[in-house]
Design goal:
Elements lengths: L3 H10 L6 E4 L29 E4 L1 H10 E3 L32 E3 L6 H20 L7 H23 L9 E2 L2 E2 L6 E3 L2 E3 L1 H12 L29 H13 L5 E4 L2 E5 H10 L3 H10 L4 H8 L3 E6 L16 E2 L4 E2 H20 L25
């Protein structure tokens, strides 16, 4: 097993969480500025005329590739029950039926230095807005910025409060994590929920943006192993959407009812006002195989699926028993063994595990906003 803790320090601690802003042309005062408003969130409305700046998130990508573990493609099968400790009835590690879906974050391998580096990187992202009007850069660059800032902030706070079984129990100054305004951009105090519901959802029409927001829960959209990048954010969101909707945490059939994640209900005021009809059209763009049949053979839709357990390798709990020279707890070892069994099954069945995506290829005559997420 690779010493993950040492790797974390190598990419974050040594880097000082530096952030590069790449420029293509000089910054200019935007020709079209959003109208004045008493609503402080209106300042983040994207400008019509934009300058070609790009923010580089390579440090965050390096981090994600080290501490995020993909659990493989959705199989819609119930995983084997993990073995209990001999002589006890205590469950070790995860017991969620979704534990082999999406991805897991290795919070148990993080030390204080790494946790402090997340705070430093989050502040670096905030400071970008002090020198660059985020709303003046290309829309995809803006979207990538908000997705990454939201997810960095969530990782930071969950890491600080680990071990915790359910992220929604975390409070900052007595305020629930999702509502706490610990993020500051252009002088505006923001909560994770503000970023989603006051900035991104009102300004982006395509509902696939909801799959870019990581909530720390097994039942939500998975954390990706690459930072969102303005040059390919549309493709990244498509892949995240496809994985989530085709997994059991996104959709289930019970009788004649299609049960869906409660995250769809949360986004309904912005994207699914006629909930069942709008959601069915959205699902039809991404579901396949068994889930497509479920969509066609159900007559009602109910938002009922929710799993609040933490998307963490160790299940959000310390374990005093260790394997492999003291680096891997029993709970982590059990989950990784189940993951290995799942991937072996995928190999035996010849199921598709990934995709080759060609993005950021410009052809003669392509518009400057090619691939822009509406």
């Amino acid at each position: 097993m690779v010493d993950l803790k040492a790797q974390y320090c190598s990419w974050l601690c040594a880097s000082g969480a530096a952030l590069l802003v790449a420029s293509q042309g000089q910054a200019q005062e935007p020709a079209s500025v959003p109208p004045a408003s008493d609503d402080r969130f209106a300042t983040f409305m994207p400008y019509e005329n934009r300058i070609q700046h790009r923010i580089d998130y390579s440090i965050w990508t390096s981090a994600l590739s080290n501490f995020v573990i993909s659990m493989g493609p959705p199989l819609r099968k119930k995983p084997f029950n993990p073995p209990s400790v001999i002589g006890t009835r205590r469950q070790i590690g995860h017991n969620s039926i979704y534990r082999l879906d999406g991805s897991m974050v290795a919070f148990s391998f993080m030390n204080d230095e790494v946790r402090e580096s997340f705070t430093e990187y989050r502040r670096d992202l905030e400071s970008v807005a002090d020198t660059l009007d985020i709303q003046s850069i290309p829309r995809n660059e803006q979207l990538a910025y908000w997705l990454n800032l939201h997810n960095v902030a969530m990782v930071e706070q969950i890491a600080k409060n680990w071990p915790v079984r359910q992220p929604h129990e975390i409070e900052i100054g007595g305020v629930p994590l999702d509502e706490a305004k610990f993020i500051t951009v252009e002088g505006v105090a923001l909560s994770p929920r503000d970023i989603r519901e006051r900035i991104v959802y009102p300004n982006w029409k395509n509902p696939k943006v909801i799959y870019g927001f990581w909530r720390g829960e097994i039942g939500g959209p998975a954390m990706q192993r690459q930072a969102f990048d303005g040059r390919q954010v549309g493709d990244q969101l498509d892949r995240a959407a496809r994985e989530f909707m085709n997994s059991r945490r996104g959709t289930e059939k019970r009788g004649s009812t299609l049960h869906v994640s409660r995250f769809f209900e949360e986004a309904a005021p912005f994207y699914f006002r006629n909930f069942e009809a709008d959601l069915r059209r959205h699902l039809a763009d991404y579901v396949e195989g068994e889930v497509l049949e479920m969509l066609e053979k159900t007559s009602a839709v109910e938002a009922s699926l929710r799993e609040r357990d933490i998307a963490d390798l160790a299940g959000g709990a310390r374990d005093n028993g260790f394997f492999s020279g003291g680096r891997i707890s029993r709970g982590v070892a059990i989950l990784l063994a189940q993951r290995r069994a799942k991937l072996d099954y995928v190999d035996r069945k010849g199921l598709r595990q990934g995709q080759v995506i060609f993005s950021n290829i410009d052809l003669p005559g392509d518009p400057p906003n090619k691939g822009e997420v509406e």
